[in-house]
Amino acid sequence: MVILLSSRAVLTTLLYGSTVLASGVRTALKLNSTILNFDDVKTKHGIGDISSTVYSYLSFVSFDVFAPKDPYIKKLISDHDLNCATSPPNAIIGSRGNYGGSSPAAIEIANATSMTASGLLPYFSLLSFSIKPMDAPDASTTIYLKGYSNATNSPMNWTAEFPTGYHLPFQANLKDHSHESWDNLNRVEMWAEFGEDALDWEFCIDDLEVQFSEAPDSGKKLVKQAAA
């Protein structure tokens, strides 16, 4: 499914999305969700390492944590990208080219054994997040998501196409926008590209809402975690 976004559409979805998030997604799934805002990751000159660590049972491949309003970072990015951190100070920035390769950025289960020992099933659900392309993208710059689930034989896909210009963060509620639940995931790939040659474009994400499932025989209860 492809969504064409304008600034007005983004604003409308932000308002609508907050209602769904508060009274729809969490209630319907009847599980506690975790909102990852990355604000506890230490940064130096506005940049923090997340690719080499495990963060809430997940690995963030080809992502960096950054603080848009850090004095050093503010010199490097557009003033229109200070809104990347929808819950300041930190957000994450992804790109196929962050580490010199062509593979997409990805969020994946870091250690299935550790999750099982904690009474959790080794997969996750992706519910929502804020996302936008950096700077002012060229026409038809598109952000792609591909989810690999234990419950389906083929990957789940969602795309959002952005017109030329600067953008507000887009609140993506995956169940509403893709018309399917992104459950039982072991890996989600994300990338943005533009032009006939599919050139890479950086994008930023914040307030990533995920859910983990308790193993049926674990006897443990999940504890709700929410960003401050």
Characterize the structure shown.
The chain is of the alpha+beta class and 228 residues long. The longest helix has 23 residues, at 7-29. A hairpin with a 4-residue loop joins strand 12 (185-194) and strand 13. It has four helices and 14 strands. It is globular. Residues 1-30 and 221-228 have low confidence and may be disordered. It has helices spanning 7-29, 71-74, 112-117, 174-178; strands spanning 2-4, 33-36, 47-49, 58-61, 63-66, 91-94, 105-109, 120-133, 141-149, 156-162, 170-173, 185-194, 199-200, 203-214.
End-to-end separation: 33 Å
Total strands? 14
Average per-residue pLDDT, rounded, comes to 83
Global Rg: 17 Å
Question: Any key phrases for this structure?
Answer:
228 residues; alpha+beta; 7-stranded mixed beta sheet; 4 helices; disordered N terminus
